[in-house]
Amino acid sequence: MEVVICPDAAEVARLAAAKVARVARDRGPDPVIGVATGSSPVALYEQLSAMVRAGRLDLSTAHAFALDEYVGLPVGHPESYAEVIGRTVTEPLGLDPARVHVPDGAASDLEAAAAAYEQAILDAGGVDIQILGIGANGHIGFNEPTSSLASRTRIKTLTARTRFDNARFFASAGEVPTHCLTQGLGTIMAAREVLLVAQGQAKADAVAAVVEGPVTAMVPGSVLQLHQHATVIIDPDAAGALTLADYYRETYERKPAWQRYSKGI
Ligand code: F6R
């Protein structure tokens, strides 16, 4: 696992976008990008959008797969992840809506929808790079603590902590759905590269547990320790509980120029 501690959140977005852009260009013409919702990747998407607008990146033939979707929100609800991805990813990054996929949380048969989602990822050739945020409880996607480390896309019950954290997007906490469809940890681990971004002190304990703690279903993101190409890009606040922070900084500083993500900008 590579850990990059940036001087600030703006640099997290810049470096992470450079990494995604490099993978997208290398895997062209139709790279498959796994996208997360939530606050963490918003600035990263803005950076990618700026590259697209400047003509330095073309994602018009890329495929995108969202991590998860609430169950029980009406189609078109502004906080459904289908809508959020449309606003923050599809439109600003110039993606073809027909190539952007979000699990169908409104399906009458949720198990069939989950199986169809797994198949759609396979049909696209698998995810080249999966963008991830981290929940304060260590979840990735909506794989809450005790999720099987081998899980695939399925229905999950959200924890009270996650509903509390996501209440900021809804008029009241009671409106946050209790269930979701989420890619499993096994699904996420099948991506050829994974890129986790985190900012702020509220994520420090989760980041430390993911990077330096034991691999355990109690911290679902810790499964990324078993991934061959996992990168964690964070700001100093999110790095605040890491015991080897100096080592990660030194490692990045000593990286040869050709390996630096800024090359992709
Ligand atoms: C979003 C997702 C979640 C979030 C996590 C962090 O699709 O799957 O795992 O990445 O809850 O959310 P933010 O970034 O809002 O702190």
Protein topology:
Elements: E1 2-5, H1 9-26, E2 32-35, H2 42-53, E3 63-66, E4 68-71, H3 81-90, E5 100-101, H4 110-123, E6 129-132, E7 154-157, H5 160-166, E8 179-182, H6 185-189, E9 193-198, H7 204-212, E10 230-234, H8 245-253
Parallel strand pairs: 1-10, 2-3, 2-6, 3-5, 6-9, 9-10
Antiparallel strand pairs: 4-8, 7-8
What tags apply to this protein structure?
single chain, 265 residues, alpha/beta, 7-stranded parallel beta sheet, 3-stranded antiparallel beta sheet, 10 strands, binds fructose -6-phosphate
Explain this structure to me?
The chain has 265 residues and is α/β, with parallel strands linked by helices. The protein has helices spanning 9-26, 42-53, 81-90, 110-123, 160-166, 185-189, 204-212, 245-253; strands at 2-5, 32-35, 63-66, 68-71, 100-101, 129-132, 154-157, 179-182, 193-198, 230-234. The strands form two sheets. The chain has a seven-stranded parallel sheet with strand order 1-10-9-6-2-3-5, with helices on both faces. A three-stranded antiparallel sheet has the order 4-8-7. Helix 7 links the parallel strand 9 (193-198) and strand 10. The mean pLDDT is 96. The protein binds fructose -6-phosphate.
